[in-house]
Amino acid sequence: MITVVSGLPRSGTSMMMKMLEAGGLQTLTDDIREADEDNLKGYYEDERVKVLHEDNAWIGEAEGKVVKVISYQLKHLPEGHEYSIIFMERKISEVLASQKKMMIRRGEPSDDVPDGLMTGIFQKHLDETYAWLPTQPNMRALYISYNDSLQDPAPTVDLVNRFLGGEMDTEKMMTIVDPSLYRQRK
Questions:
Q1: How many Å apart are CA 34 and CA 43, to the nearest integer?
Q2: Stated pTM of the model
Q3: CA 38/CA 18 separation, integer angstroms
Q4: What is the domain extent for residue 125?
Q5: Hey, how many other C-beta atoms are within 10 angstroms of the C-beta on 146?
Q6: Distance between alpha carbon 13 and the CA centroid of its chain, in Å?
Q7: What SS3 state is found at 96?
Q8: 92-105 and 115-132 are packed helices; what angle lies between their axes, rounded to 10 degrees?
Q9: I need a surface site. Which of 52, 88, 149, 184 has the fewest CB within 10 A?
Q10: Would 16 be classed as within a structural domain?
């Protein structure tokens, strides 16, 4: 079994990765992208995920571990493995605000596509992903609200623990949720 944390960029995937690590799972990361102003506790990424559509042969290294796979790359996970996917959901307006803030900090252009258009693109992608996931015989998914998790992490921790077999250290998982990091509220 491979545990996957997924969702749109800036949807709470790094927080969930850290929660799962605290709960006792080993994460598959390369530690290339270090913590910064936009993600103070780290990104928990493996750069190979960005090119999963070109090379997915390495995914077997994630057996028994948890790996972050952005939602746009889920369709490129290879057959031959079983996947438990924790899909993080966040208000699209907050995702956009968080991305924009990050791009500004990095000196990248942030106004190329209007928010209204990006909202439509993200929503279409999410709708397609929500329709596709249940049709995959080797994937099961649990949908977690980032917004709800910050307000009251106990139900999230309980759901995730049960979804992954009930052996997690739930007390340690609870300590990871830090509402002070919830900066892009809409």
A1: 7
A2: 0.85
A3: 15
A4: 2-175
A5: 22
A6: 3
A7: helix
A8: 120
A9: 184
A10: yes
